[in-house]
Design a protein that fits this description.
The chain is mainly α. The protein is built from 4 helices and no strands. Helix 1 crosses helix 2 and helix 1 packs parallel to helix 3. It is globular and about 40 Å long.
Length: 101
């Protein structure tokens, strides 16, 4: 189901289901998170899955991280957030997480 949604749709869905924010606040939070995670270029691209190509591997990692960050958690536990990524992309993900911390 989520593979047939865009990052923007996924973040909005997660925010609607997991917070009590109003529509304007949700839109603001989604747009901010897309910017912070550097997903603006692919915000309207389907995430995809093994059967249907979508966003790249690093973009998919950032989408999954953003799905959890959308609720503004006080604690975030990540299991191997850089697995399967090349060294340059892994460094970008780690720097992003350091910045968010």
């Amino acid at each position: 189901m989520f593979s047939q949604m865009t990052p923007k749709e996924l973040f909005a869905f997660a925010c609607r289901m997991r917070t009590t924010l109003d529509t304007n606040a949700i839109e603001s939070r989604v747009n901010n998170l897309l910017k912070v995670l550097n997903l603006l270029e692919c915000q309207d691209t389907l995430v995809g899955d093994t059967a249907k190509r979508g966003v790249s591997g690093s973009e998919r990692k950032r989408v999954s991280i953003g799905y959890e960050l959308i609720t503004n958690p006080s604690l975030l536990i990540l299991d191997e957030p850089t697995s399967g990524l090349d060294s340059n992309t892994a460094l970008k993900v780690i720097n992003l997480l350091k910045k968010e911390a």
